[in-house]
Amino acid sequence: MSEIAIMTDSAACLTKELIELYGIEIIPLHMLAEGKVFRDGVDITPSQAYELLLKNPDSFKTSPPNPMECLECFRRISQKTRNIFCITLSKKISTFYNVALIAKEKALSELPDIRIELLDSRTATAAQGFIVLSAARAIEDGKSFAEVIDTAERIKEKVSAIVLLDTMSHVYRSGRVPRIAAQAAAVLNIRPIFAVNETVRFLTAVRSRKQGIERMLKTVKERTKNIPMHCAVMHAYDMAEAQKLKSRVAAEFNCVELWISEFSPIMGYATGTGTLGLAFYTDSEPKGD
Prior knowledge:
Number of strands: 13
Number of domains: 2
CATH class of the largest domain: Alpha Beta
Radius of gyration: 19 Å
CATH architecture of the largest domain: 2-Layer Sandwich
Helix content: 40-55%
CATH topology of the largest domain: Hypothetical Protein Tm841, Chain: A,domain 3
Strand content: 25-35%
Oligomer: single chain
């Protein structure tokens, strides 16, 4: 029996290989498409979900799992451990943290011998994934539960994520941009760059994908200053561009870790296909946006 289990939601954008390597438990977020409910990464792959999104974008909706689903996940994990560390996407982006909190309260009476700790990652995408990985690696290093939590808290203060949208057409679905404004920006070929830090914040806008990629790389260079960094290249239904971006990052940065991940369609429904992003951190002091 393992001493500690790590649990997170599918918005962490971890690859299947990393999930299996570290034995990370994933609770899937939900999406509704063409009248059917799909569990992110379980009933449908990201690519399949993006195909449905492109086919009928107005039918696409998202939602977190409910407290009973989360409680069931706690029950299942409790069969193999006595300590559960659940790391969620930012509660300013989703209600899942509150869902997990309700499930934890229910588990207190049902699973009295199980310790459950929750951590709001204050981010999403592979930036959240890096926090999860830091905890999983601390477990592999034989750290105590308190030390695992401390490690995740420390990385939480370091991670950043920047995202380049290929279009503004779908941003209104996030509730942060009026639909008419998103449509007008799309007509003008404005491509926004956002930071994911507690919530999604606008950084700047460019007129082409090429300009956007250069701006993202420049931002990362300013923050990392060639210090060894961990980096994930993210994409929404555009593996070819993600591979090109990964090659640029590998050539221009000092990476101790570099991998490609697909954006969860839970986020992609508001960003649209063609979105690219970088999640990263160094082991030096964190730098603000």
